Amino acid sequence: MRLTTMGVARNFDRSIVGILATSELPSGQRSDRIRFFSEGEVHESVSGYRALLCHDGLKVDFAVPYVHRLRDSDHLRDGDIVVLEGSTGLVRSLYRPYELHHHLFVTERCNSNCLMCSQPPKDRDDVEALTQRNLELIDLIKTPPPYLTITGGEPTLLGDNLFNLISRLKFSMPETEVHVLTNGRAFAWPEYAKHFAETKHPKISLGIPLYSDYAGLHDYVVQAKGAFDQTVSGMHQAARNGIRVEVRVVLHKLTLPRLTEIVEYIYRNLTFVEHVALMGLEYTGYTPRNIQELWIDPFDYQDNLEQAVEFLAIRNMTVSIYNHQLCVLKPSLWSYARKSISDWKTLYLETCERCTERPNCGGFFQWAIKKHSDHIHVL
Amino acid sequence: MDANSRAAAPIEVEISLSIISAEALLKTCYWFSRDYVCEIRNRDENVADVFLTSRDSSSGSDPSSIKDSFITAAMDFALREKIEAKTSGIRDLLLAKAFSEAGVLEDQPEGIFGDKIEEANPEGMFKILNNRYR
Amino acid sequence: MARVFYPLQHFDPTPTQFQLLPFRFMRFEEKELLVNEAGEFLFTPSGTVRNLVDGSLETNSVLYRDLKAKHLVYDDTSSALLDVLATKVRTKFDHITGGTKLHIFVVTLRCDHSCHYCQVSRQSASRAQFDMSTSTADRAIAMMMDSPAQDVTLEIQGGEPLLAFEMIQYIVTKAKPLALEKGKNLDIVVCSNLSHITDDILHYFRDEGIKVSTSLDGPAFLHNKNRPRPGNDSYQRAIDGIERCRAVLRMERVAALMTTTAASLDYVTEIVDEYVRRNFHSIFLRPISPYGFAVKTHRKIGYEMERFLKFYKDGLKHILDINRGGYRIAEVYTQILLTKILTPHSTRYVDMQSPAGEAWNVLVYNYDGDVYASDESRMLAEMNDRTFRLGNVHSDTRRSLFTSDAALRMFHAACNQALVGCSDCAFQSYCAADPIYHHATQGDMYGNRPTSGFCMRNMSVLKHLFSIIEQNDRDTMRVLWSWITGTTAHGPATECA
What we know:
The structure holds three protein chains of three kinds.
Chain A: E1 4-6, E2 8-10, E3 15-21, E4 33-37, E5 51-54, E6 66-68, E7 81-85, E8 90-95, E9 103-105, H1 127-140, E10 147-151, H2 160-172, E11 177-181, H3 190-198, E12 204-209, H4 215-222, H5 227-240, E13 244-250, H6 259-269, E14 275-279, H7 291-294, H8 302-314, E15 319-322
Parallel strand pairs in A: 3-4, 4-5, 5-6, 9-10, 10-11, 11-12, 12-13, 13-14, 14-15
Antiparallel strand pairs in A: 1-8, 2-6, 3-7, 7-8
Helix pairs in contact in A: 1-2, 6-8
Chain B: H1 3-7, E1 11-16, H2 22-32, E2 36-42, E3 47-54, H3 63-98, H4 116-120, H5 125-133
Helix pairs in contact in B: 2-3
Chain C: H1 8-11, E1 19-20, E2 23-28, E3 31-36, E4 41-45, H2 48-53, H3 62-69, E5 73-74, H4 82-92, E6 102-106, H5 134-145, E7 151-157, H6 165-181, E8 185-191, H7 199-208, E9 211-215, H8 220-226, H9 234-248, E10 254-257, H10 268-277, E11 282-283, H11 293-296, H12 298-301, H13 305-324, E12 330-331, H14 332-342, E13 362-365, E14 370-372, H15 375-382, E15 389-392, H16 398-402, H17 405-412, H18 435-442, H19 453-471, H20 474-486
Parallel strand pairs in C: 6-7, 6-13, 7-8, 8-9, 9-10, 11-12
Antiparallel strand pairs in C: 1-5, 2-3, 3-4, 13-14, 14-15
Helix pairs in contact in C: 5-6, 13-19
């Protein structure tokens, strides 16, 4: 399902965040809504909305902000929270209440540059604008979701802005479990870890990647010198301040040879982690460029994977496998496989039509069309 | 000469004191003292002779394998001395860190931070944090 | 501006030299076993230690990376992460934080059994002068609650404590509200041979949440042989007692401990099978303690370390087979040692700690108010050796107990890090110090390592376990890990009458 579409923006030049309304609302309920008119719908009673959105070209020059000549709307539903960009006419969906997985995207900046990054970083300071947008977004969420992931880029680069976002979440939706995907490096500075903990969010955890049990290889994968040391120290400082930590390992040709050693390192040095996530490679972002170094067919690393999972399981550590299809996993590993792909990203191949395990299988990312295991088969 | 007195003849081991220190030698004898009476005689300042007399006259173990075990054990103690010489300083530091209050004896983060925008910013968060530590 | 990717050598240059982190080693079969300061180990090819010491080890190798990951070496291409290592060391010494956790109350010396190895005087059941008085109990309870530990275990022993049931009630009634007031979690265990158990006593235990620990030495012929009693029915009484306890209390609140005697040494399979038959899920293959009547009636008990080791190894093999067959039963001694070897944690078992758990983690309050550093030291006092008597509840405070001559002398010999033989030993992190054992068996708290039964036993058992670890048989390791993670941490298996 698409996330963005384009139109032509009028009467505003910054961003407008609002909830889509596909039918008319009483005037008292319009102030946080963006009124969407489907093709051919009459454009009347438009005052009081934050903005208007429509496919048709609006001839009358309404005084309200609007985006017209919208290209696509098959992905839009009533209640979706979207942002309209005045400078470009871009319409981006930020939040879909009917989905299970939700993300708060906070920056494109990152101080690492992982070989397989799915969101290649940009050195452009977008923090102020995105923070503003996200604060508005949080205020517009009517029904707090059970989980929310803060992602980027590298969220810790927001500095105090991140703490503001977390505090706003704590205030608006204290029951929502917040997961922050971060490289954890900033936490190596004890002051930072302390400040983070001072937000005192009751349900927050960090998801931090680790790609080796020794610095040289981890630093190479993340393309940052000193990253391993900072990440490991950072996890320690986080744990000391009572911040819950989860470790993620992306499975590819560079991480798989020492996968058992990595999990042993986690067990002895990062004993406090509450979960280990072993993730399949995503064929997007930087990955296609570096595919020669990274690609190994999941079918071919099942023994390594089983050994590592067993290592953790017998030690009572919680472990999950993400982004793998059931037909390439050993059956002994099925109970660890999670349906982890965000709803809007999930796809199945033609081969999958007749598969009996399809309801239990997490499926593929859309880019799997271009790159997936040679062993996908019906179960 | 009967079998018993032959079995009780001491096993001789020649030890070079430039390789095995007196301390390493004593430690080796300490462990062998359960099964052997150990007598050390300094031949000169570079060589010592060790005489191992079995406490159990009926044991009948092969003298050359006992000699090998003794020398291997002595070499291992010599290695341990070298390890201790190289690591005692860092071990003291390690134990001091382990038993001190959190944060008191800890190292500051090393390495670069790695974000161009933050590093260029004079009021950047990490600059401020770093300055506090100076 | 697009970012550049740098090659591996930029981040992972081959180090030209390296530094050593502290470690101990031993030759193990055809390999070398290296152990770091936090008790993490690595098997390496023979010759590795020499190459480490003379700096000739090839740094562009898997071995070098393994050594680095296990905190055995470091170099200037990355941080040694000393603070992480220090945290691991601190975790391994967790057992010394918090103050004394196990408090043993000897409520009476009276007993109706005449066990050969019993370290308590044999007294007929009618002499009330060997019971703890209420004033002594009051003082001992106050002393116990003075300990900073948040989780405190009150273990009631004797003689046979059920012969002084009113005193048990008195102590429980006094201790519980005081624990609540001080915000402590109080666990109560009564060690009894169960021959005097009644329904009233059982209901009391159930209502107060008290656990029971009893003795089961093996099948009838063995148990009765070890524990003579008028009527020669100790086994039947024990079994009946166990079933009665289980009927009223929950299964997991009834534990059994075995005592190994010379007679037991040939029957490990039968003993284990008895435990399985009686539905127990843990068994502790302990060596016989060398104290008290054991020393007096040495000829009768006649214990050789070699025979114990065969007993232990055969027993462990049989237990592992039983586990693989689907019945879960853990061997406690193995579980304790494996916790020290394979996990980042320390053990709560006071007899296998360094600094030794005596006094630090266990105190024994005798019926007369005398306070001892351990159950064994009380038994020594029964034979007129008061070396480890720390003081008396009526005349001492916690401070004066811990700064008494007896305590200070003992503490001096209580760290295996500083003992001859132990200071170089690769097993130091997994073993312990036991000044009381060495005083009792060798007349010297510091001990002579090569002739020490404590050393011989632990060294052999540890070697045996490392052999199993090295073989890394999948099913065996699964069973062993189920013991490490599944069983809850618990205090010492002290001798129960």
